[in-house]
Design goal:
233 residues; globular; alpha/beta; 7 strands
Length: 233
C-alpha cells in the first residue's frame, strides 16, 4: 500500500533536515570525545566550517571498511575531522596520507589527530595539493585503496587525473560538495567551482577506467551531493 509522505513547507526544510539528522545520528553515529574535540578546536581556531557532518564522516568510515582499505588518500585535511573517521577504518598496518594547503589548518589537524591517538597512522603533508599529488606520483606512492577529494573544486579535474595515477582497479574515489547549491545543473554558470565540478563530472563520465554515480544529500550541513566512482581497470 503506498505510503503518504508529509509535505513540508520550503522554509521548514532545513530545520527538518537537521532534526532527521539528529534522530539518526543519535542511534547510529558514534561521535566520541576526540571527534567532538576536533570539531570544537577547529571552530575555535577560526577554520572554515567545511568539515563533513557526523553521518557523512561515518559514511566515509563505512566505505573504507567495506573496501578493506589499508591505504587512503585524502585531498583536503582542514581540521582533521574526516581524517579521524577515515584513519579509524584502516586495516591492520594501514596508512593514511592527507594533503592540506594551509599550514594553519594543518597545525590544528595534527593536534586533533594526536588527541585521537592516530598521529602515527597519518602522513600529513602541507602544500598545494597539485604539487603534493605530483610528488606522490613521482615517489611511486600508492596505489591507494580509497581517495577522498574535498578541496578546491576548481582543481577537481586535475585531482581526478592525479588520483587515477595513484589508484588501482578496485580503488574507490569519493568527491564531496559537488552540487554547488544546485548551480552544477546551470550550464550558464561562470563560477570557477561550478566549472571545476562540471568538468570533473564530464571526465568521470567519459573515462574508460571509471564507473560512477552522484547522490544528492540534505542534512545539518544543508543541501549538497557527492560523487562515488569505482576504478574498474
Amino acid at each position: 500500500m503506498p505510503q503518504t509522505v508529509p509535505q513540508t513547507a520550503p522554509q521548514d526544510w532545513a530545520q527538518t533536515w537537521t532534526a532527521v539528522d539528529d534522530y539518526f545520528n543519535g542511534l547510529l553515529v558514534e561521535e566520541d570525545a576526540p571527534l567532538r574535540a576536533a570539531a570544537t578546536e577547529s571552530e575555535a581556531a577560526g577554520l572554515p566550517p567545511h568539515q563533513v557532518a557526523p553521518n557523512q564522516g561515518k559514511l566515509l568510515h563505512l566505505l573504507a571498511r567495506i573496501q578493506g582499505a589499508r591505504t587512503i588518500l585524502e585531498i583536503g585535511t582542514l581540521g582533521g575531522y574526516s581524517t579521524i573517521w577515515l584513519a579509524r577504518a584502516l586495516g591492520e598496518g594501514g596508512r593514511l596520507t592527507t594533503l592540506e594547503a594551509e599550514q594553519r589548518h594543518a597545525t590544528v589537524a595534527a593536534a586533533n589527530l594526536a588527541r585521537a591517538g592516530l598521529g602515527h597512522l597519518v602522513d600529513l603533508r602541507v602544500g598545494k595539493a597539485l604539487d603534493t599529488l605530483s610528488s606522490l606520483a613521482a615517489e611511486g606512492a600508492g596505489p591507494f585503496d580509497l581517495v577522498f577529494i574535498d578541496a578546491d573544486k576548481r582543481a577537481n579535474p586535475e585531482y581526478l587525473d592525479l588520483s587515477l595515477r595513484l589508484t588501482r582497479p578496485g580503488s574507490v574515489i569519493v568527491a564531496d560538495n559537488v552540487a554547488r547549491g544546485g548551480a552544477v545543473a546551470d550550464p550558464g554558470s561562470e563560477d570557477p567551482g561550478v566549472l571545476g565540478v562540471r568538468r570533473f563530472t564530464e571526465l568521470v563520465s567519459a573515462h574508460p577506467r571509471l564507473t560512477a554515480t552522484t547522490l544528492q544529500t540534505v542534512g545539518e550541513k544543508g543541501y549538497d551531493a557527492f560523487t562515488l566512482a569505482l576504478v574498474t581497470s
